[in-house]
Amino acid sequence: MGHRVIEIGAVEVVNRKLSGRHFHKYLNPERDIDDGAFEVHGLSRAFLQDKPVFLDVWEELVAFIRDAELVIHNAPFDVSFMDYEFGKIDGTPRIADICTVKDSLAIARNKHPGQKNNLDALCRRYEVDNSQRQLHGALLDAEILADVYLLMTGGQTNLFGAADQTQESAQSSRPRQRNPSEAWNLPVVAADAAELRAHEAFLDMLAERNKVTPVWRNNEQR
Length: 222
Known about the structure:
Layout lengths: L6 E8 L2 E10 L8 H7 L3 H4 L5 H12 L3 E4 L2 H13 L7 H4 L1 E4 H8 L7 H8 L11 H16 L9 H9 L21 H18 L4 H7 L1
Parallel strand pairs: 3-4
Antiparallel strand pairs: 1-2
């Protein structure tokens, strides 16, 4: 029906942490905006009149998403619109030529079958604050989806986080490949004398109660 993309928003996640980099553009659709669509996003033709057209931003967008994994809620809908925009410009690639795509809606449906799995429902389920989401906004939705996706696919998102790692992530445009010989540099905390005595006393109790040598002492003897 000739509908066009009027806003693109994306945030970068590196090593399961927001890097601070993002991409956000409003676009002039060069056509009228349906009343129903306006009620969803609140972007008027007058507001978008002086914004760039897709032709002006596509190279910057490709540079941002190239070789990444795009996480999109209801990905086929968004990808079809992006490919439609690319298709209007001779010689431009398609999303599949640029990066891979993961549909967070499909993941949510598999994880929570028979339940509502729109972004608002997932925010309630995973206790993600979406109080500022009065209308659909591309960048805000991307930020909210990042939180939901990280919680939905792993829970803890900053287990090994440190200030220097956060700084490194913010400066990196893609996840750094770890050398197999590179150590994780995790802290090693040794037991003190009192803890060792308590441990030995616990093993004595186990040995007396079960009439066998505890497995820990078997390992120590090897």
